[in-house]
Amino acid sequence: MNFSNQLIYWYLNNRRDLPWRNTTNPYYIWLSEIILQQTRVDQGMNYYFKFVENFPTVNDLAAAPEEEVLKLWQGLGYYSRARNLHFSAKYIVNQLNGVFPSNYSEIIKLKGVGDYTASAISSICFNEPMAVVDGNVYRVLARYFGINTPINTSKGIKEFKKLAQQLLNKEDPATNNQAIMEFGARMCKPQNPDCNSCPLNSSCSALAKNNIKDLPVKEGKLKVRNRYFNYLVIETDENTTKIVKRKKGIWLNLYEFPLIETLKPINENELIEHETFSNLFGLNNVSVKLFNNKIKPHKLSHQHIYAKFWIIKIANSLNYKHSWEDISKYPVPILINNFLNEYKSDYFF
DNA sequence: AACCCGTGGTA
DNA sequence: TTACCAAGGGT
């Protein structure tokens, strides 16, 4: 048995029964693939159920306001996935008469769909012989064939795609693609792979050379940027506050409290003297109190955000019309959601 | 090519 | 605790 057929044989005896494995409806496969980008199955599962339930068809998704889509996506991260998903749903309904594209070259035109996702959908739903190359495939191929080309270079991307395509079982690309990914996720894991019970252990290069921990090779290291956020949590006499929509960068189109970002941590006096602060409150009589004395950084892939939540009490409620109950309807970053849960738990539970 | 975009699990 | 990184894609 060749490499791919051994993987398929293993897969047919070891596959998990996942909800998106019981359908070839391209809309559902698309949903699952977008949700699972850079996301573990355990983390994405409930989101898949939520999306299928709230948007049973691509028409339902297209008809929803973006805020509703982002709210359902809240907590999953990489929110451009949700924005692109929604954009592409509208494209399918308005430009393609609601018919999901049925081949690789049309599928990859969808926003948020790259080579991996187009290969996955076209093979699983339409039996098109396009090999998927995700993190699992890089790892399995690099180890088994002893390839040390860095996987995050254009050379590596081409090399692994070509090899995966050569290895692909063209009779059953759907099963082959899912087999190699499942194999990478559960047998040839990043740490502590189960080499003892691996069906390929007698011919694996990395096992023979004892360099499993060095493969796959990744180039460069991402640098983490520190940012200092000062959120202005307004409390008016009428029990209202204010949130605003983010217009750029991280958490685009999600909501947060009015923000003053600084290059270094600042204290209360520096906050009050800040230009943005005086522009907002002018000569109004406000009281300021820091909610979180202990600042725990909110860690993203390449940013550490040190957020202070300043409670601003003000009599005038003219410009601050959000009730605290309303805020739970808006999509917010986890950082904001965690604060809300601590600060106004009465309203949310 | 280099950088940006989240959150949570694991060792 | 830090570091890695997960069914990647856009610019």
Automatic annotation (TrEMBL):
Q: Does the keyword Iron-sulfur apply?
A: yes
> What does the record give as EC number?
3.2.2.31
Q: Which GO terms describe its biological process?
A: base-excision repair; mismatch repair
Q: Which cofactor does it need?
A: [4Fe-4S] cluster
Cofactor binding, note field = Binds 1 [4Fe-4S] cluster.
Biological role: Adenine glycosylase active on G-A mispairs. MutY also corrects error-prone DNA synthesis past GO lesions which are due to the oxidatively damaged form of guanine: 7,8-dihydro-8-oxoguanine (8-oxo-dGTP).
Q: Which family does it belong to?
A: Belongs to the Nth/MutY family.
Q: What is this protein called?
A: Adenine DNA glycosylase
